[in-house]
Write a structure and sequence with these properties.
Layout (H helix, E strand, L loop, with lengths): L4 E6 L6 H10 L5 E7 L11 H11 L6 E6 L3 H7 L4 E6 L5 H14 L4 E6 L9 H9 L10 H12 L1
Parallel strand pairs: 1-2, 1-4, 2-3, 4-5
Bound molecules: 4'-phosphopantetheine.
């Protein structure tokens, strides 16, 4: 039985170990994951450009043939259909994520009933990890290496050393 393709969408500004855990677990449910950087209109100022984020993610997953990295500027469900994906994978952390995720999943379902949103609970270790908190700590010289892949840690250091 085929397990199909899922899109794992997000801003990934930058990718964290919480995202990495989701991808690893998502690969046990799906044959292939497309990690897709999409635009979140609520997030106005980005630290890394979309190209920088794509480059980082491509580098991190260069050995994983089941993971594709891409960027898309339009609607998530249109992108999913275009890629032949039948699912959207999202992680749920503390209860604060729920309302936003619920709303987005229902909207996506209304827009396209052929694409199912699948949620995985965040691992306990990553329940309070977010790209925003990582960025805030790194901005002020905080050590975030336990929360992000080594490449991201290097890029953050490079960025804030300037
Ligand atoms: O990591 P984030 O910022 O929580 O991810 C949110 C994202 C980028 C997945 C979401 O904003 C999104 O899907 N943007 C593309 C536009 C879209 O399809 N929005 C949802 C239906 S209105």
């Amino acid at each position: 039985m085929t397990k199909g393709i899922a899109i794992y969408p997000g801003s990934f500004d930058p990718v964290t170990n919480g995202h990495m855990d989701m991808i690893k677990r998502g690969l046990r449910l799906f044959d292939r994951l497309i990690v897709a950087i999409l635009h979140n209109p609520a997030k106005r100022s980005a630290l890394f450009t979309v190209d920088e984020r794509v480059m980082m993610l491509k580098d991190i997953f260069k050995e994983d043939e089941n993971v594709e990295v891409d960027a898309h500027s339009g609607l998530l469900v249109d992108y999913a259909e275009q890629k032949g994906a039948t699912a959207i994978l999202r992680g749920l952390r503390a209860t604060s994520d729920f309302e936003y995720e619920f709303q987005m999943a229902l909207m996506n379902r209304r827009l396209n009933r052929n694409v199912q949103t699948v949620f995985l609970m965040s691992g306990l270790q990553w329940i309070f990890t977010s790209s925003s908190i990582v960025k805030e700590a790194a901005t002020f010289g905080g050590d975030v290496k336990s929360m992000v892949p080594p490449l991201v840690n290097d890029k953050l250091k490079e960025r804030f050393a300037k």
